[in-house]
Amino acid sequence: MPWLRRWCQSATEMAWLRGIGAAAALVVVAVGALGCGGGEERAEVGPSDVEAVVASALEALLPPGQVLHLKATVKEDGELRPLEIWIDGDNQRGRRETVYGEKLREVSVSDDWQVTSYDPWANSVHTWSLQDYPVAEGLGDNPALIWVFYVWIMGSADELAVVGSENVGGHQAIVVNIARIRREPLGDQEPGTDRLKLALDAQSLLPIEVEWRFVSTAGEESLIDTVSYEVAEYLSPGDLPSDLFSPQSLNKLVSPE
Fold first, then answer.
1. Can you tell me the distance from the alpha carbon of 42 to that of 158, in angstroms, rounded to the nearest whole number?
2. How deeply is 43 buried, as exposed, middle or buried, from its count of CB atoms within 10 A (0-12, 13-18, 19+)?
């Protein structure tokens, strides 16, 4: 079963998704003051203004008339995993590709509330609706945000603070610390606190790096993964393959028996 559908079935994860609506509402307030994405110069945001940073960071993911393209490397348990995401906010569409090992490529596309995923382990394609799950409650503005995981956690943070700026990967970054309490067990993990260190480009507020740690109620800390973004850019829809967001395109990935 695709990773996203597994998460959607967990009642524990719904709390932070419900918070996205409130966080996304800040975008409406901030659009006039901070400017729009997609090439316009963005007004500088003070490190103490956490609501403005959150609003502008969400806005940067949905550039009007353009498609956001992210390429990243996920480091988990010593393994490196390529990740690539496209978000067409105007049309509420998205695509996410993750490569496991040398050959296994998991691909999902979303069109409005419908998600189609290719599961490389089962060698099959599944289509399902986000509206069948409580996840829909928190994605009223734009379901394409489902593909950027730090937005989910930021949306229901118990603690959210802009702690300053630092050089991350050669870029001047605004650093946001995010804490979200898990009040019920999730899978095989006990309750505790997710702690994210999110580094956003100081000018564009697009992601540079996310470090995700978990602290158990016993105080034991573990690193879940680190996501390093090598590419964060805006593309013209006309320059992309016409079937990039097409659910039917995933059928080509199914290997003959």
1. 28
2. exposed
CB neighbours (10 Å) of residue 257?
4
Token pair recorded at residue 229: 């973004």
Residues near 122 by Cβ (< 8 Å), separated by ≥ 6? none
Which CATH number covers residue 244?
Answer: 2.50.20.10
Q: How many CA atoms lie within 13 A of 210 on its CB side?
A: 23
Q: What is the pTM of this model?
A: 0.78
Domain holding 201, by residue range, is 3-253
CB distance 225 to 78 below 8 Å: no
For residue 133, what pLDDT is reported?
64
Total structural domains within the chain: 1
Query: 47-51, 183-187, 245-249 — which one is most confidently predicted on average?
Result: 245-249
The 3-state DSSP class for residue 29 equals helix
